[in-house]
Amino acid sequence: MNVAIGVRVKSGWAAAVVLCGPPNAPQILDSLTLALSDAAVPATRQPYHAGMGVAQTDTARLRTLIGLVERCARRSVGQLVRACRAGGRRIRGMGIVVGSDIDPARIANPHIRAHASEGRLFRTVVERAAKRHALRSVTTVEREIVPLAAVALGKSEGVLKRAVTQLGAARGPWRAEQKMAALAAWLVLGRKRH
Fold it and tell me: For the whole model, what pTM was predicted?
């Protein structure tokens, strides 16, 4: 059975959805939260912040926090990949949705740059973890995924949004993060094989 993983990256965590089935009728295998930060070290949720509205300038502390973030992402993504591959399932790839792809170096305001740096960090650690498990990944900015998926899956944006909402309607919490992760997984599931 082929499966696809979709991930909506946030600061310190990610919503993950695993889909299976044919692209015209995907089904949810799992919906979960990936820890991308260490609960025992709250600063790993926002490592580029030294405090409320203050950018982290201690490079040694920043390196330590980033190392913890990388380990957390490797562990969380590794557990998910092993669970997905159980029973002989084949993972077609991972779709990753992010809030922005702006280069933090282009931002003058230190506080806003810290947020952009965190966005880049959490995106990068998920991409690296996917690569570590030999998964092809595609990263898409959230504002672009619905139009992109509509074209790729041959559905109108409205039909696609309703379908994603219905896909998780019976699963309990099915917020925007889960919907974006499901849409990313659906794109991977529907991608033509090369």
Answer: 0.93
